[in-house]
Amino acid sequence: MSNYDQLTAHYQTISHFNHAQSMLGWDAAANMPAGGNDARSKAMAELSVHVHRLSTQPQLGEWFDKAQQELLSTEQQSSLREMKRQWQQATIVPEDLVQAQSIAGSKCEHAWRSQRPANDWEGFEKNWKEVVKLSREEAKIRSEALGSTPYDAMLDKFEPGTTTASLDTLFSDVKTWLPELIEKALDKQNSQSIIMPSGTFSTANQKALGVETMKLLKFDFDHGRLDQSVHPFCGGVPSDVRITTRYDEKDFVQALMGIVHETGHARYEQGLPKAFAGLPVGEARSMGVHESQSLFFEMQIGRSKPFISHLSQLSANAFNAHQDPVFAEENLYKIYTQVEKGFIRVDADELTYPAHVIMRYEIERDLINGVIEHTDVPALWDEKMKASLGLSTKGNYQNGCMQDIHWTDGAFGYFPSYTLGAMYAAQYKATMQQTVDIDGAIKSGDLSPIFKWLSDNIWSQASLHTTDDLIKRATGETLNAAHFRKHLETRYL
Ligand SMILES: [Zn+2]
């Protein structure tokens, strides 16, 4: 057996344990009675330890060195690169630091749940201080191994290849035109009247509507399913993808578009190449590319006029309300493209969302690089929020820097993925429309030409190429914010 084959077999084994882990996680979120939590947590922790041991086995280093000398095809070289990357990610950070981070993160997050509603920054700050300190230690260790700045080393966990330099260029471009575009869109929408849903929309009817919408988006129900959970997610494994949503019986709007979003994540997973199943090279490229698929489904397809025309019919059918003006095409389109300045990122619309992401990026970049201290964050948040959306968060911590869960457990470097994803999605569309009649396909109800493009250019490519190469091969250029701007201007002006 060659060293390359040995590595392949080893990573297949790891993927089987990850499969089990993922299904236990889905079950815990979607099905498990509360009393099962204690034993389930222990079982999942045990599995994590086992996977970590497999991922850091001492002989792997030697196998990688020897496999590098073997005669490998181009695809095998990519496969080796991705296995090695996962191995390095797993071994860079010493185990005692990982453990300390896990304890500090859980403690901070647990207390945050009651501190946020109480607007208790002082209490939060005491726990968060430790989380930030440990994340900086992690960033320092990673940056020494990678030869980069501390924050770039954290970015590498979620967006391999993306750097502060490239993000600064992209985001400073967005900052020059976004505030004015938001104002213009608000002006334009000022006079429009919207009829918001009222009444009761049963969970059963909403689920049936969700399933019909997933069928339109060609979700493969032989290899996946839809369930409910408190926090919607896409989990499982490519051959069995589990997506979830959360229903509000007073309003179907959010859950429906949430399902469209998660279906985008799911179709990427379902479309990954079978030939590389269980191997790192067969996995999704990055968090940003994953988000580019969910956001392509949600923003480029889901909120387009022809798709909303389908949603109008499907929802009127599901709730048996054909005369209700809420479900009229024009009205639904207004609902799904309404712009509003708000404090909360997760409630933000497509147009104001990047403003939320960019300010978090600037703050976490400086925090991890040691340019600012954690106690500077509330004032900076207030300053940036005023500059980008004209809202003050002075003294309003719960709707300011304490609103997101990401920082409480030290997930620094993750936020940029959201806006990168939105930008990639707009760029795919700009290229796709040169060869595909996108609106025509959506109108006809057969969206296969769109999915074929995504499959050929993104899904089937998995992690064979670096992100820059993937985007260049698909669109002829690396990420360019101009496409995102054009998309937003076309939709909102
Ligand atoms: Zn997503």
Could you characterize the architecture of this molecule?
The chain is mainly α. The chain has a domain at 3-158. The chain is built from 20 helices and three strands. It has a three-stranded mixed β-sheet, sandwiched between helices. Helix 8 packs parallel to helix 20. It is globular. The mean pLDDT is 96. The structure holds zinc ion. The site of zinc ion has 4 residues, from helix 10 and helix 11.
Spans of at least 5 consecutive residues with low confidence: none
The neighbouring-strand order within the major sheet is: 1-3-2
Query: What's the order of the H and E elements?
Result: HHHHHHHHHEEEHHHHHHHHHHH
Largest β sheet strand count, sense and barrel closure: 3 strands, mixed
End-to-end separation: 61 Å
Number of strands: 3
Q: If helices are DSSP runs of H or I spanning 4 or more residues, what is the number of helices?
A: 20
What is Rg?
A: 23 Å
Give the overall average pLDDT: 96
Shape: globular
Which small compounds were modeled alongside the protein?
Answer: zinc ion
Q: Structural class of the helix and strand makeup?
A: mainly alpha
Percentage of β-strand residues: under 5%
